Amino acid sequence: MSKRCYYEVLGCSKDASAEELRRAYKKEALKHHPDRNQGNPRAEQTFKEVNEAYQVLSDEQKRRIYDQFGFAGLEGAASGGPGDMGDVFSHMQDLFAEMFSGGPFGFGGNRAPRRGGDLRVQQRLSLRDAAFGCKREVVVHAPSRCDDCSGSGAAAGSKPEACSACRGTGQVSTARGFVMFTAPCARCQGRGQVIRNVCKSCKGEGVIAKPRKVTVNFPAGIDSGQRLRVQGQGMPGPGNVPPGDLYVEVDVEEDSRFERDGTDLVTRVNVGFVDAALGAEVRVPSIGPETENGEEPTLTVSIPAGTQSGAVFTLKGQGIPRLDGRGRGCLIVVVQVQVPTALTSRARELLTMLDEELRLGAEDAEGVSRRRVAASSK
Ligand SMILES: [Zn+2]
Ligand SMILES: [Zn+2]
User: Fold this and answer.
1) Which tens digits make up the pLDDT trace of 339-353?
2) 246-272: average pLDDT
3) What share of the chain in percent tops pLDDT 90?
4) Nearest ligand to the C-alpha of residue 148?
5) DSSP for residue 211
6) Residue 59 sits in which domain range?
């Protein structure tokens, strides 16, 4: 059987960019993944081809050799060979970690997984906790490794034994004519092991359903939709396989005082029309850090005389800290000038007088004599 060209396998042109190759690989790998095509040996074959193609084309040096010399150029160059499924799966896990999470045995089928499945939980944080970072105990409702049998499923003093039907491989092969068919072993359900003396605590499962707490450090500047990976806190793997990872997705609560835009915060502040006209010191809410006495922190902004509604003042370094620790964004203060509504008759009188005064002042500015206007209006 002649080998298909790597570019053809991924459905890419020869001048495809690294990103195009990555996307094509992801698409093809998902399509032919054995978990989605159980009992279809053709899909597994294609899946291997796809992985091999990507392993070569994603490596700049190997790709150059392949472009120049074809398959012959690569022979003997790769140690171990690109067809090794074990490597393929560890490679896959990085790329699709969350897509195939959930099951305690990670990848399905009849081969032993390298580690347990990944888990995903959501954690809500207040805007301030997200801004300045915090430590939280996240409760994970998922099976944990059984302590009584260390996850083996076998009662104390005993061990799981290699399955005699499949000699511990988890697979049995049967010949039909010239073709060999391989299927998961029925006696051990493909685990390769049988437990004679079952652990009473976990009934031989090796895992127990009990919520557990995981302490997670949320870094300053984290935002909604961002994910933290806590290594080794996912599902326990069967036997001695290491556990998967825990992904904690952050959901930042709304704060009525602020709108967040990346590392910038926008706050709206009401200013009386007299203050806006005369200029004033205005207190605006601040994200913090929190004050020692537990009061909400504020900042003072000087509003110059003649400030209009909608005017914007930018306070540098008063926004959200950047995730990389390099300073903070801005606090953007938007002024909303308040017009008085409940007027006493005296206030109304004063406002009318003020209006006349302002009108005269405006005419003055246009060069009209104030005295002449006053005289002619009598
Ligand atoms: Zn077996
Ligand atoms: Zn147990």
Assistant:
1) 999 999 999 999 999
2) 95
3) 40
4) 2
5) -
6) 1-96
